[in-house]
Amino acid sequence: MNRVLYYLCFLMCAASLVCGENPFEATQDLPVACRGRFCSLESHARMWLYDFYHKQELKKDDLRAFGTEDRSALNLLWEVHFRGHHPWDDAPLFWIHYAKQKSLLGLDTSKDRFSFNALKNKSLDDEQLSQQLLSFVTYQGALAIENDAYTQMLGQMEIEGISSKEIAQALEQRFPLSARLKGAGSTLLMLPLRTLRGEWVSLHAFETKIYDQDAQRLVLISNFTAFTDTDYLRLRDAYLVLQNAVLSHQPIADAALNFSTVYSEAYARLADRPYRQAEGKTLSYPSLWRLKAETLYYKLPLIGTAIVAYGLALIAMAATRRLNGWTWIFIGTGLAVHTIVLAARCYILQRPPVSNMFETVVYVPWIALMTGIIFFFISRSRMILAAATAASLALLVLLQLTQVDARMENVQAVLDSQYWLIIHVLMVVGSYGAFLVSGILGHFYLINACLNQKQNPSHIAQGILHTMYLGVALLIPGTILGGVWAAESWGRFWDWDPKESWAFITACVYLLVIHAYTFQRIRDFGLAVGAVAGMLAVSFTWYGVNYVLGTGLHSYGFGSGGELYYYLYLAAEIVFLVIVTTMSTIQAKKLLLK
Amino acid sequence: MKFLRATYHFLGGVYFALMLIGTVAIFVIAGTFLESATQSHRYAALFTYGNPFFGFLLWGFFINILFAATRRWPFQGKHFPFLTVHLGLLMILGGVLLKHYFGLQGTMLIMEGSGSHQVIEPNTYAVTVEGRNGNSPEYFPLDTHWSGAFKSVIAQRGEGLHLRLAGYQPHSSEWLASWVKGNVANISGLNPMPMAIVEDGMPIVPAGRVRFYQDAPVWDVYSLKTDAIDKMIARLYQERARLRITHRPSGDIWHEASLSSDEIKFKDGSIGRTLLTFPCNPESGCVDALLTLAINGKESVSVPLQGECALQNLNLATPYLGSHPLAVDIVNTPFLAVIENTAHTVFLAAVDPHGHLWMQPFKKGNFDSIIVYDDGFAGYGIATTLPFHVFPAGRKERETALADQIVGQLRHPEAEHGELAPPLQLFKSACQEVDADFPEALTKFFVLWDNTHSWLFPEHQTLPPPLDAIFTKLRWESVPSHDWRACQWCQRLFAEIGPALEQGNPPLSVLRDARWPLLAQLEQKKLEDRDLLTLLTQQVFSAAGTLPAPENDSVHDENAVLLSAYLRAYGIHLSTIKGTPTEDEMQSLLTSGNHAADPIALETALVAMHDPLPTGKKLEDNLPMITLHASNGQRRQSMTLSYDRMGTGLKWPVLNGEYLVRFQPMVHEIPYHLRLRQARQVNYANSQQAFSYECDLIIADHSSGSTIEKTISMNNVHETWDGYRFYLSSIAPPNDSAVKRIQIVVNRDPAKYWLTYPGAIVLSCGIVLLFALRPYKRDE
Q1: Contact in structure between B454 and B498 (CB atoms under 8 Å)
Q2: Assembly ipTM
Q3: Which of A8-17, A144-153, B280-289 has the lowest mean pLDDT?
Q4: Torsion angle of alpha carbons B419, B423, B429, B434, nearest 10°?
Q5: Which of the residues A593, B108, B116, B619 has the least number of beta carbons within 10 Å of its own beta carbon?
């Protein structure tokens, strides 16, 4: 057991030590503009690589093809930034999953990743892949700016003998400076424009040259950023040194460290400062701590650690008849890491972590486990704790297997109400956790009832009812308060939108079961069947409406993928219910005959 | 009594509750799948949530919950959670029902700078009628029978207006027909012209003739239906145009005949051939129509027939030498054609007597602007203007206009008093000596030089007397000596290589043959021919300091040659300083030297056309159509109207323009006037994703006369003291490309504060109580 503990500790610490060889590691906490946010460079690099490669770091097998010994996305991003896309045109960067698509394109169906050169002349129907190829081509690297249209036009006008004043005017008219800065590059948007607050441009903008009409030659652009003039010059020098080191294959680490230090000092004056105002709300640049937290969040294997801990907890529970200290250590470790995941997302995003599928799949098992722990202390039922741990483990494993998009995103304007987001969404999604425990307890009961007729596991039935009530107590008020939110924010209380409808249907299923059980129209067995059926309704409300129906006003949660597996799950549950009901009926008849 | 008691217990019993819950759940499940399959909420609602049976079920819930509670009478303490839950449910249900019957839910559309106090009630149907008396429009709802069908009488006012519904179609399409209505072309002032379908080989006969100006040529008018717009225009053009080719240096006409693709033999033995191209597409018609003259198989002159460079001759063979020696003109019998394709896009095409083609598409029902006659009581129309005038506007007139433009630019105070390039200053000084007008003289020289088809002005070319007098006064001694020497060396250089250049040989190969010592530098630059020759001239100027003086100094009759070399060194030639005016600017240049004349304006009335369509499953996309019988005791009229969802479209005249009518949703006037000052979408950084939608409103309260300014945004609404709430629903467009239009949802719920919201709280408390007070203990 001690070894297992060591392993856990090792997991927690190892991640912070990995990538020690990455020469660009010093830059991992610097801010960069990405998808409307300012995230840490480490997280941006990982998500950037994920978009193309479907992994957050390079596979060992691909290192040779990428011409590197480092798996880090951050390293690759910096290299691409400086060298452009050409050195990686033959590297297997683009992930294509579907075999049909691969065979249509004449690609090797046994592989999942293909190079730019292998794809560039194919006629692609996949819009996302086409966009990726187009964006890949925009990575022109350093020095691309040397022979741009601006320089060519200047050369032309110099030949024509046009005066320097007219040249400067004509160049500015044809190539406005703001457009040149924005078009300097699409990688590493790390330079905040002074004139447009919140708009950041690529580090390549440092290389921009403008025509100096007094000197009658091209000169490097002066400070255009929100940094101070002194910081700008220091930063530009540090950047050019780093660029030179990369392009001339010299040691990089010191230059990267220097750049990171200078950038951090310059950015410290902007950190936590507001950059955009709207009615009643403000957007601010992230603090240095938030950026560090984001880097750590992505580098530490938090979800994996929680999975291991929950798995060990289940094994410990199965191995002994009574809950021992190890069980609580594993559950406590898992819960702590699990809580860190949620808390980190809250801290980094400054909002409750329930606005996309990834976040809800993390939040629901947390609620499930909390439900299990609370009810364990009330009822002293091990089964509830086991069910809650199993639910948490199953969902987190599902999360890892399905690779749901884990990126941190801005909340949509329509959802941007902390008050209602907390009240409505946390309650409704929280209810799924309680229903999940109830459903798994239902499975336990039904399996137990079929396998062991003599012992009537009524304590499990009580657990089912407890958790079902908790779920209903969260679901119905949460849904009604959602109606109040809708009425307060958009002017209508209820509109039979599919998400609303399925919340209503789920409530109906549980009300049906509760009424039937309370008024003795069904017994414990029926209650367990109802809990499983209710869990199916919950799964459809949660996943089905967003991924199967894909219609309605709650469109911000829509997605696609995994429908087949979901149908298989539904079918398996139905088959399970039919089998246990049949077995139960047969056994009841046998008992009656006896 | 026993039956009543049994019914009462059944209605308040658990079986009825279970039946209701189960049935409603099945209904709602079906609704969600229907909505997903059809992507139509209204379609799903038609069979489920909006179905009367579903309403009965909801009333069943109300009764069940009520009776379930009353059955517990006399209440005991243990009933408290149960009663609380059921009371909360009753309150919510009651609140929703009260809002449905007595509340208000609608939308307002407001553009920046404008205001409104009218709320449109979605999914309602009404006919709005506006009289000439200036009173507010009246709204007549289309009432329904109990069966759901519309009642036939819409409005009946004694001896006044009587509106009756004669027909209803759930889905239709509506568009505005303009120049072509059905099978007839209409241009105001001309007789209606039947649309002809012309097949290959059949002659095209004009449908009418018109003289736009007195003493001007008569225009033929065609009305045609075809999808092959390019072929039709090409055919019309080719059948009516004559080609005239003039030799510029001599001014002789070398060729004049019908426009065809046959070979043309010129006086100098060269062979010419013309090619006419009309690139057309079904949306914008012909663009960039072009006539190309190829000489000895090489494309030499192109003449755009449309656009800002229309009719100007572009030298394709030797553009660096200015104009081509052959000038191409077209002499045409003018015509106007109304052409419609199968997509109902109408093209107006016109060709003036000089072969200038103008074409404008009018997409089906899509117009930039319309004319409103008598506030709409006399209908609507559209107009367009042909860019043609009564005075000549051919190639020659356009070249003259461009020269006049240069004169105008040289007369500009900045050019007149500013610093001139040395060669221009030299020429200006000479002009001042002979008291000649510098801008006119210079432009005249440029035009003369341009027509010579040579890099420098030819050595033995005769100058007209006024220019000759100026050139004799050129003071070369005022020019730096190395420039003067460079001009002379340039004269010698181009005297040697000029003939080869004029034959159209590529400058680089000419220089290679001439073994030009600085060729490598020129080849390295990869310049266009004109820039290359300019650089060559500049090379001579750079090297002039190291060159010996030429053997013979120039005499004054070579001054024009030397000045042209000096000008070339500075990149100055007619082709480099000639402006490229827009089509409107060219019109104004052409007009400036002529008597003002109004352009040709065409006008036609607009008519709404309707097509019934099969009903789609996405009911939100359906556009209902009604046929109305209107009468007022004296007149009767039937008319068809399509549904105007937002009530912002045209109102159509009826009964000889006595009334205006429109088929639209019901409009509810509220006691508040909302005026939109500004709307904006604030985005996240470096992104198009919205962070906030917000708008600044000025809200005037009609009852109190007070006005407040308020910024509302999503999740941040404004509520008045009497319960009207304004929600910002959408902003379009999301950027600053046009004036923004917002949609405001207006809501008034008379029951929410004392029924719906308290009900939600009571229900929530009841559920918590049920849980906290061990409700899972079975009811014994």
Answers
A1: yes
A2: 0.81
A3: A8-17
A4: -140
A5: A593
CB B626 within 8 A of CB B608: no
Shortest Cα distance from B14 to chain A (angstroms)?
A: 7
Give A552's contacts in chain B (Cβ within 8 Å). Answer: 35, 41
**Phi, psi dihedrals of residue A548, rounded to the nearest 5°:** -100, -55
Lowest-confidence segment of A287-301, A452-466, B297-311 by average pLDDT: A452-466
Instruction: Name the A residues in 515-574 with CB < 8 Å from any B CB.
Output: 515-521, 545, 548-552
**Beta carbon pairs, A and B, within 8 Å:** 199
Question: B505 burial class (0-12, 13-18, 19+ CB within 10 angstroms)?
Answer: middle
- Please give the Cα distance from B689 to B748 (Å, whole number): 31
Evaluate if residue B553 carries a pLDDT over 80: no
- Would you say B493 and B280 are in contact if contact means Cβ atoms under 8 Å apart? no
Distance CA B213, CA B598 (A): 10
| Whether A498 contacts chain B with CB within 8 A | yes
- How do residues A458-487 score in pLDDT, each as one tens digit? 788 888 998 998 899 899 889 888 888 887
- Write down the pTM of the prediction: 0.73
Which chain B residue has the Cα nearest residue A513?
A: B18
The helix (H) or strand (E) run that includes residue A239 is helix A229-247
Task: Please give the Cα distance from B652 to B626 (Å, whole number).
Answer: 13
The residue among A133 and A418 whose pLDDT is bigger is A133
- Helical packing angle, A164-174 and A149-159, nearest 10°: 150
Using CB atoms, which residue from A33, A417, A509 is nearest to B25? A509
Q: What is the DSSP letter of A106?
A: T
Q: Answer yes or no: are the C-beta atoms of A56 and A80 closer than 8 Å.
A: no
Write out pLDDT tens, residues B176-194: 999 999 889 999 989 999 9
Which 284-313 residues of chain A touch chain B by CB within 8 A?
A: none
Could you tell me which residue, A41 or A410, shows the higher pLDDT? Answer: A41
Residue B349 CA to residue A223 CA, distance in Å, equals 55
Block residue for tokens 């799949």: A361
Which residues in chain B (506-545) have CB-CB distances under 8 A to chain A?
525, 527, 531, 534-535, 538
Q: What is the predicted pLDDT for the residue at B683?
A: 87
Determine the straight-line distance between the first and last CA of chain B, rounded to whole angstroms: 28
CA contacts within 13 A on the Cβ side of A325: 3
Contact B335, B260 (CB under 8 A): no
Compute the C-alpha angle B491/B497/B501, nearest 5°. Answer: 115
Apex A324 CA angle, A320 and A325, nearest 5: 145
Substitution target in A464, A500, A551 with the highest count of B β-carbons within 10 Å is A551
CA dihedral A518, A524, A526, A531 (to 10 degrees): 90
- Interior/surface letters A121-132, b for 16+ CB within 10 angstroms, e for the rest: ebebeeeebeeb
Inter-chain CB proximity B45 and A280 less than 8 Å: no
User: What's the helix, strand, coil split of chain B in %, to 5?
Assistant: 35, 30, 35
Distance CA A40, CA A52 (A): 19
Tell me how far apart the alpha carbons of residues A119 and B87 are, in angstroms, rounded to a whole number: 65
Stretch B352-364: mean pLDDT, rounded?
Answer: 90
Provide the pLDDT for residue B333.
Answer: 87
Q: Which residues of A touch B690 (CB under 8 A)?
A: 412-413
Token representation of residue B395: 């190639």
- Angstroms from B18 CA to nearest CA on chain A: 6
Q: Which two tokens stand for residue B225?
A: 């239906």
Q: Which residue has the tokens 């717009």?
A: B229
Instruction: Sort out which chain B residues have CB atoms less than 8 A from A275's CB and list them.
Output: 685
